[in-house]
Design a protein that fits this description.
This protein is an alpha+beta fold and 110 residues long. The chain has one helix and four strands, in the order H-E-E-E-E. The N terminus is likely disordered.
Length: 110
């Protein structure tokens, strides 16, 4: 009986992951698009950008829009990052720089 329950639970988890996969991928794409828009809005020279990282934050809920995301831009000309925190609907919550990086109009982390 326990084997059947564990097997059934694994199947449910697998189906849930398969069904949420495309939705999560769409949300990540929306967040990446918003990050690109922020880069444009801030007038950041793309030649300064070494890498862009976008990741879901741990601890997000299951309801649509409850997951939050973090993005970091690593620059070629400074030690630090531009950090962008976004909601699950890709709304920008906070933007700040770290290390010795500076972006006009953006506050440095405390």
């Amino acid at each position: 009986m326990l084997t059947r329950f564990v097997g059934g639970a694994a199947l449910v988890a697998l189906v849930a992951a398969a069904l949420s996969g495309p939705a999560e991928a769409r949300r990540i794409d929306e967040v990446r698009a918003k990050v690109q828009a922020v880069i444009e809005d801030l007038g950041i020279d793309r030649s300064r950008i070494r890498e862009i990282f976008v990741t879901p934050d741990h601890g997000g809920g299951e309801a649509p829009g409850s997951q939050s995301y973090s993005a970091w831009l690593a620059f070629t000309d400074c030690d630090g990052n531009l950090a962008i925190r976004l909601s699950g609907t890709a709304a920008v919550r906070t933007i700040y720089t770290t290390g010795d990086c500076a972006v006009p109009g953006v506050s440095k982390a405390d």
